[in-house]
Amino acid sequence: MKFFLGIHQPIWLTRVHDVPLLVSHRRLGHRRTLPRAVTEWALDSGGFTELQLHGRWQINEKDYVRAVRRYADEIGNLAWAAPQDWMCEQNILKRTALTVREHQRRTVRNLVHLRELAPDLPFVPVLQGWTTADYQRCADLYYRAGIDLEAEPLVGVGTVCRRQHKAVVEEIMRAFASCNFSLHGFAIKLGGLSQYAEALSSSDSMSWSRRGRYVPGCGPSHRTESNCLRFALSWYQQIQTTLGSAGLSAGGPSAEPLARVA
Fold this sequence. Notes:
Largest sheet: 8 strands, parallel
Strand order of the largest sheet: 4-3-2-1-8-7-6-5
CATH topology: TIM Barrel
Number of strands: 10
């Protein structure tokens, strides 16, 4: 299983070798200049924050495609990009005043439109829902739209971060893994991985930053470790070690740049 380290400082794309990274569009979209990546990375659309703040997507599909194309060209090494999907947590549904089914419909429609606009960009489908039946219905919507999820190199599973330890999430992951889907679990922490990592092809998390808020900073430039590259890479190494002891891989050799970070 490949593990993408979530980061909120795009400049780290230039400093980290051999560790897959995940960066949000919200961290890149406003930048005039972009870093050149020296490692593989994936783009998160920032949908949860977008919907939580505004109750809708403020960037249209053409502008999002334009942004992703810029990232692919100028940053390079882009493995895949999330679509402008619609999460189904209860607080997000309350914010949008829409139903789970409507969120699913908009998620599928968005991927179809993005691929029509830019068939060369690596947009991946994302399953959204709440119950197992919801996710199965979302998969059916993709098939009806002409997207064969079994043939996709990666299929994201959203709306699981805040309930990853619950039995229903493990049920969802295992159900689709048994259908030969190559699954990516969004924001899956170690607790969730310990239950169903073998059902995933990849996952991501930046929970190191939340944990780092309560750790004194390692230098005079920051008070805590919530924004420290050394701390993030050390946490990533721990994930590798833990998954390795279970016979799984976090994707990539040990983090060479630990000795190179200023």
